[in-house]
Amino acid sequence: MEARITLVTLCVDDLERAVQFYRDGLGFATEGIIGQQFPHGAAAFFDLDNGLRLGLWPRASLAHDSGLPVGPRSTTNFCLAHNVDSEEEVDEVMAQAALAGGTVVKRAQPTFWGGYGGYFQDPDGHLWEVAFNPELLPAD
């Protein structure tokens, strides 16, 4: 298997609310909800940088498709990270997420590793880290 990920899917309880958060609140581009004509098919996709896509899919649909029961949410099993170019940009993104309906769980502050960062959760509890890491600056 090649070490290549092309899609990260977040499972959500309310697809319309999740699309609104990512599209309207964070400004991620999407065609909106597609696949509604299929049972358990409704989903939304967002194009990210470097060919990566973010998918949103109802938790019940993943459970149905995988054959596993819907399990409890856990906010500490998985975290997405968004690296930015400055401490100021960290603060801007954190404020944008909060204004969009996200919950700031750790205000941005200096980190033990020499950077600056904080954490927010989307409306479904998915954890995002927003960080300025001088060693891992995003590509232009």
Structure description:
With 140 residues, the protein is of the alpha/beta class. The protein has two domains: 7-66, 2,3-Dihydroxybiphenyl 1,2-Dioxygenase, domain 1, CATH 3.10.180.10; 79-132, 2,3-Dihydroxybiphenyl 1,2-Dioxygenase, domain 1 (Roll). 23% of the residues lie in helices and 34% in strands. The chain has three helices and eight strands. The strands form two sheets. The protein has a four-stranded mixed β-sheet. A four-stranded mixed β-sheet has the order 5-8-7-6, covered by helices on one side. The protein is globular, with a radius of gyration of 16 Å. Residues 4-133 form the VOC domain. This is VOC family protein.
* CATH domain class name of the largest domain: Alpha Beta
Beta-strand segment tally: 8
Helix content: 10-25%
Order of the strands making up the biggest sheet: 1-4-3-2
CATH superfamily of the largest domain: 2,3-Dihydroxybiphenyl 1,2-Dioxygenase, domain 1
Order of secondary-structure elements = EHEEEHEHEEE
Give the overall form: globular
Number of domains: 2
Q: How much strand content do the residues show? A: 25-35%
- Sequence stretches where pLDDT stays below 50 over 5 or more residues: none
Mean pLDDT across every amino acid position: 92
CATH topology of the largest domain: 2,3-Dihydroxybiphenyl 1,2-Dioxygenase, domain 1
Give me the Rg, rounded: 16 Å
Q: What is the architecture of the largest domain at the second tier of CATH?
A: Roll
The secondary structure category is: alpha/beta
Number of helices: 3
